[in-house]
Design goal:
The structure is a single chain. By secondary structure, the chain is mostly helical. The chain is built from three helices and no strands. It is elongated, with a radius of gyration of 17 Å.
């Protein structure tokens, strides 16, 4: 059965375990950091000044971006993990 897309949980949904949600979001953030990091490895542009500051700043910005995407549930990995661990088939 296909579930409708909704921002509010269904009334029959199991209560949310805050620790499980936090762990699922953290896992999604780690996955997104890895994905973004691999995307930067394919970049053809090198730092013209030869400094490691640019790569450090990029890593920090990538981590913040990954955290923000995971927190918003933009990709949906956390929701799938949470559903699986709660015993729901999503």
């Amino acid at each position: 059965m296909i579930r409708p897309v909704s921002s509010s949980p269904s009334p029959s949904a199991a209560p949310v375990n805050p620790e499980l949600r936090k762990a699922a979001i953290a896992f999604e953030a780690v996955m997104l950091r890895q994905l973004i990091s691999e995307m930067h490895k394919g970049a053809l542009v090198d730092d013209i000044f030869g400094s490691s500051a640019n790569s450090t700043y990029r890593e920090l910005a990538d981590a913040r971006t990954a955290d923000a995407l995971a927190q918003r549930g933009a990709i949906g990995i956390a929701a799938m993990i949470e559903g699986q661990l709660q015993g729901e088939a999503k």
